[in-house]
Amino acid sequence: NDPRVSSDVPLSRRRIRNASGAVALITIMVLAYAFGVVTLSEPRAFAMAWSASMGLLGLVVMLACCDALNSVRLHRRELRR
Question: Is pTM beyond 0.70 here?
């Protein structure tokens, strides 16, 4: 057993939050590229960077919604016990 992982944290919650963290890190890198590196003089790269940024931000929001719905599901399951 890994002492860093609490046994009272449900596996579904851990998986969703790990995925959210990974997507958030990638999103930060893509946003940094979009804000700081790519310019309007490179229209293709500019469009790709901002499209990827918006898509990844949407994915972050979707994962947050999944986490919220999973928390509601886990709470209801606890109430039934």
Answer: yes
